[in-house]
Amino acid sequence: MSTLLAKIKIHPGKENTFEAVMQTMYQATHSTEDQVIRYEYWRGCEPGFYYCLLSFATTVDFWRHQASDHHEGEMQRFVDCIAELDLETVDPVQGASPLPATQVGTLDRGASLQLADQAEQFPVSLAQWWLAHRS
Q1: Which ranges carry the ABM domain (predicted)?
Q2: Rounded to two decimals, what is the model's pTM?
């Protein structure tokens, strides 16, 4: 499984557009992607800041999500709203989260160029210090 947390800062005045895009993305992701475990958006305390928690059965499923028609179809509206985006791989603390530990997957040799591009743009890696704390 792969879990990621995105911190997103949007341009002032783009809140309504951003939230409309995220509602579309949420619906499309949950209705078409069988391997999604968590995909949800949150408003932050600071104006214009949002968070997205993404969790997929495998790293490859995350990259498939990034390459999906609905994600790519909303990309221009998404990009028009974004001032900054920080995507961090996170590891659920076992016993304090229902999600399984984050694992890193690899692409098959026959993966499409589009999927390979997503893997390059959005690498998923384990922080070594996590391993000592996993049960």
Answers
A1: 1-72
A2: 0.90
